[in-house]
Amino acid sequence: MFYSLKFKLILFTVLVGLVFTGSIVVAAIQIQKKTLNQEFKLKTNNLIQLLSKNLINPIYNLKVNEITELINDYKLDEDIINIFVLDNLGLIISDGTEDNVLQDEKLNIFDEHKSTIIGNQIYSFEPKKHQLIVIKAVTTSTGVHLGHIVMDVSLQREENVILETLTSLIYLSLILFVCGLFITYFVALSFIKPILLIQKATNSISEGDFDIDLSFNRKDELGKLARSICIMSEKLNSTTVSKDFVNNIINTMGDCLFIINELGIIKSTNKHALTLFHCEDTFLVGKHLNSIFLDNVINDNSPIIMSGKECLLTTNDEKIEMSLSINELVNVNNSQTNTNDQLFVCIAQDIRHQKDIQNKLIHSMAEIEDSLKVKNQFLASVSHEIRTPMNGVIGMLRLLRTSNLDHQQLHYAKLATSNAESLLNLINDILDFSKIEAGKFQLDNTSFNLQELLADTCESLAQSAQLKHIELILDVSESKHSIVYGDPNRLRQILTNILGNAIKFTLQGEVLVKVHSQLIDTFETSNLQLVIDVIDSGIGIKKEKIETLFDSFTQADSGTTRKFGGTGLGLTIAKQLSLLMGGNIQIVSELNKGSVFSIQLYLTFDPDKLSVSNTIDISNKKILVVANNKNVCLSLKKQLDQWGAETNITDNMDNALLKLSVDTFDFLYVDIENINDDSLNLAQFVKKEPAFGDIKIIAMTLMDQTISTHEFNIHLFDYQINKPITQMSLIESLTLFEQHKKDMVTLNKKEPIQDINNKKLTLTQNEETKEYKISVLLVEDNYVNQEIATALLDSLNIHVTTVENGEQALSILIKNTNLLQFDFILMDCQMPVMDGYTATQAIRAGKAGNKYKNIVIIAMTANAMAGDKEKCIDAGMNDYISKPVDPEILQNVLSNWVSLSGVTGTLQ
Length: 908
Known about the structure:
908 residues, five-stranded antiparallel β-sheet
């Protein structure tokens, strides 16, 4: 809706006037009311003070008539309604009437103020009655209290005065308001009229009519605006943009400008182009544009619209690199030919300076790339040179631990292995950090079992926690997804770094791993949001150190490095890996109370292709869990309840016996971290007491703790699971022992973590009579590594033939007869004479005979930098194992290729 400026101005004046006059009226009434109240109070105060002095003697001598006369004298005042004189008890002595009708009565107003009336003068307003009641104590000059005076004063006169004033102000405001409206109307007309004239004039100018009339004389801003418009109109009417002005702009350009026609003929140019050619104005006119550029910028005699094309402009004495742009002009009338030509504008910019800068940048980038290449080569060389002896150290220590050592010697070997593996982890961290920093780190996405990965990772770190008497708890009750798609190795690395860090900095208490997952659906697949909270009761982190915690080579303070060790790279790598996986890591910590590391990652879950995690139905089972740690009990209860069981938990044996005596349970889980009489007595009591029925007792133990054969033989325990408790161990304990309860000692779950590397890979055949079914050619130049690999392969029932370089490998393959058929080749990469890459390419080319062109070649190398695996695959190798060689990884890789290649042998 449109409102004119005049209407808006009047409406604004009306609103301002209403607000202004209303404010004045309200303020005036308030001031007058306050003034009248003060006057009434002052008058009443003077009257009651004077009356109290005059009544001292009559009240003292109890002269009622004299009191009445005095009251009547004061009641002659037009504002006084009534006066009462009271004694000390508040009884009326006189009410001012001849008969004193209210004598000896009590006033309510006196009772209300009795506690505060002595020594004070009380004012009581009664708004509904428009009255002011004043109470005054009557005392002698010596302070003797004789009684009280109650004076009732009317405020009606005050109200009348205020009403008269309000009426007068309203009339006055209305008069002023009406006058203001008239004034505003005429003022609005005086402004609106010239504005309308200016509007009309600007409309005429926009239509090309510059003959306007703005002859009104004003000295204000409207007058100045009118004069400015008149001046502008005169200039527009008398002038146009001059040709000289345009030529000056063109000639001051720092670029060459050519105007050409549709045939490419130059029609005109600017001064800068003439300066480059050292020629006169007409020298370039009439020439074809291709004649001054080495490149044919116009083909088929038709200019092409282009932008930023690099070409060479040839002058009399040099060639200049130019960036050429051609744009079409609108059709104009050519005054020389009187024909309508289609013209084009060509702008050629000198880019020699930019080219110099670009070349310098390219040179600098080349230097940086060379520097990075040298750095990567150095790291690769250092990595290879360190991993080669590390492979020997760790391999020999593993072999040593399989030999017959006494307890002290085994302890020393374990310590040496642990330190060697710590050094290897440090090397891996540095290499991973280098890969991430160089931007060459790539994720290897594949499908994997999420629940198994979480369980394996926690179990691998359980012993380090349990050696410190720290409870490690895994709670996956809020994660119901099993087979997912992502990079399992990097997820394991993130969790290992964070969890290992929590265990390292926790001196007592517990470390809780809580896992939560939920689906975030997309169009094609389902993205799985995975949140892993690692909660510890460790030393905590200062608030000011949290922000720098994920920086490279940074720890909370220098003292932690001295006390706990580490480079500070683990958290940095974990953070970077989580970012690469689309997530993040956050931390909340309180000094001396613990920390919460929250890992958030995104994986892929496809319900059409991937199965969900294994669950069981135990809805008809009752389970009792006895454990000292509250979170152990709660995590088990949540998981078992989720599967449908009715679960009870308790933290001591007495409560357990009480629960067993009042209810019937199918399973009893007992935490026997330290075997003691209480837990054994509980198991014995439950097993011997017929009232408990056929209850199954499962012992929850440490990773390296094994229930003795005796306890199983006497059926004291039906099953044993190791902590931390995983979904799989729970499922097995609830289902498998029914089939194997007679062989429970042999089903003691997984071997303790510290014994995995200590485990000797056994053979099915007798050592004296064993026959090898698989034959491997080992190409390795390092003697120690030869010994280690031979021992590992021999333990897997594999025959090993060893050579020292690629040339020897080719030679033995050529000479090899059918009596000894090689099934695999384990190839080192860095070797003298002929390296592994060259040897592999030669084998694939048939230089070792057609029989071995497609043999499975597995790289077994200390090269572990980014791209080393790809380099091996590109060279023709089938798989890749990095040194130091992990026996389990070696066995898995060989087993995989045995099944894929159709080799008839088996690994033990």
